Amino acid sequence: MSSKILLFVLLIVMLISGCGQSQSVSIDKKSYQDKTDSAQTNTTKVFETVPKGFRVVIVGSGNPKTEVGRGAPSTLVQFKDKYFLVDSGANTTSTLLKLGLQAEKITNMLFTHQHVDHNGDFWNLFIDGWQGPTGRRSLNLIGPQVQELYDTTVNFFRTDLEYRAGLGWPKDGILTNVNINDFTEDKYNFELDGVNITSIPVPHTVPTYAYRFDAKGKSVVVSGDLTYSANFASFAKSAEILVFDGMLTSDF
Ligand SMILES: [Zn+2]
Q: Most buried one in 24, 174, 214, 218, CB count within 10 A?
């Protein structure tokens, strides 16, 4: 969930290639329009180059209610040629494709929490990214309640998945070769694709975690939905890029 105000911050963070190149934040209409135009002009070129360090792309920043032209929460953290997708709200798969990144490239799917605005496009991403001769053949599912998300999805679509696999596609990446890291503890720290990832719980209405990505002396932090948290402040300290998910709407 996020506010209109947050959109300005998110757009500025968007398309930053490598940490340490952050731009100043300016909240005025012209600046916002310029950045929007610039982002639209450059969208197809986002993934043509491989960054030497981190790249962060705000794939969606919308509210729980569906909006035209604005996807629900999803943040892509790229480190060199590896991708870490945090949340997959509505429109994630199509937005990534518009930006030049096919779903099959996403082998690390992380979740802050299991609210529908943060996982509404998971089924599409999960199945679309696997199917076909060049589909994803391995998958890491990470975060709270991901075991339940996986089991529910596979059970519901089992006949469909078996049919598609019967067309000749390997089951790896969907029915096999899926590594599930289901969060139930207070803190996690692990390495994945050359990145040290730390995760801590943050306050929300369901189990929710924030992520910190560290590599080559740079840091990216992605929050879930949360209210004030002293733990999160110290967790995010000194990060080069912080993507903070918040909400401010008059109808709530
Ligand atoms: Zn939520």
A: 174
Confirm whether 251 is domain-assigned. no
Q: How far is the CA of 201 from the centre of ligand 1 (A)?
A: 13
- Tens-place pLDDT, residues 34-93: 554 555 555 567 899 999 999 999 999 987 788 888 899 999 999 999 999 999 999 999
Measured in Å, residue 119 CA sits from the centre of ligand 1 at 10
In a domain, 250, yes or no: no
Domain range for 154: 4-245
Q: What is the pLDDT of residue 93?
A: 97
CA–centroid distance, 251 to ligand 1, in Å, is 16
Six-digit token string for 26: 């300016």
How many Å lie between the centroid of ligand 1 and the Cα of residue 249?
Answer: 14
Residue with tokens 């798969």: 93
**Is the Cβ–Cβ distance between 68 and 45 less than 8 Å?**
no
How many domains is the chain partitioned into structurally?
1
On whether residue 139 sits in a domain, the answer given is yes
Q: Distance between CA 206 and CA 209 in Å, rounded?
A: 10
Cβ neighbours around 95 below 10 Å, total: 21
pLDDT-based confidence at residue 110 (cuts at 50, 70, 90): very high
